[in-house]
Amino acid sequence: MRLGVISDTHNHLRPEVFEVFSQVDHILHAGDVGRLDVLTELEALAPVTAVYGNTDGFDVRSKCPRVAEVELDGFLVVVTHGDQFGSPAPETLAAAFPHAEILAYGHTHRPRLELVNKTVTVMNPGAAGPPRYNLRPSVGIMELEPGIPPRARLVDL
Hints:
It contains four helices and ten strands, in the order E-H-E-H-E-H-E-E-H-E-E-E-E-E. It is of the alpha/beta class. It is globular and about 35 Å long. The strands form two sheets. It has a five-stranded mixed beta sheet, with helices on one face. The protein has a five-stranded mixed beta sheet with strand order 4-5-6-8-7, with helices on one face.
């Protein structure tokens, strides 16, 4: 199974996302969605598990939880924006969600991919929306196969 991981779109879905996510089976959106239309456009590519972020309005908050858990290809995946932890670090998230095998988060706009405790894959895909903090927009791709650790990479847009 191939996952597309995206966060911090802030109302803006770049055309490059459609190319990078063209072969994904499921999409994780880690919050600060912006318009609900962003989720609708992503749902045209694959099923979406999304959470709200600190800048999302009532419309997104009424459709998305703060934290989502989903089992994908035998892996327990937790998605959160992460703002409830201030500026979240992979170790903080792994401690808060000890049952998770994969954690996707956003908020910092800084792409990050780490293995915590040799078993938990933690990814912040960076921000896919308007550029901020002199960082390039980015997303993530994660490959899941039962019985082996996830393979993941960050993709600049």
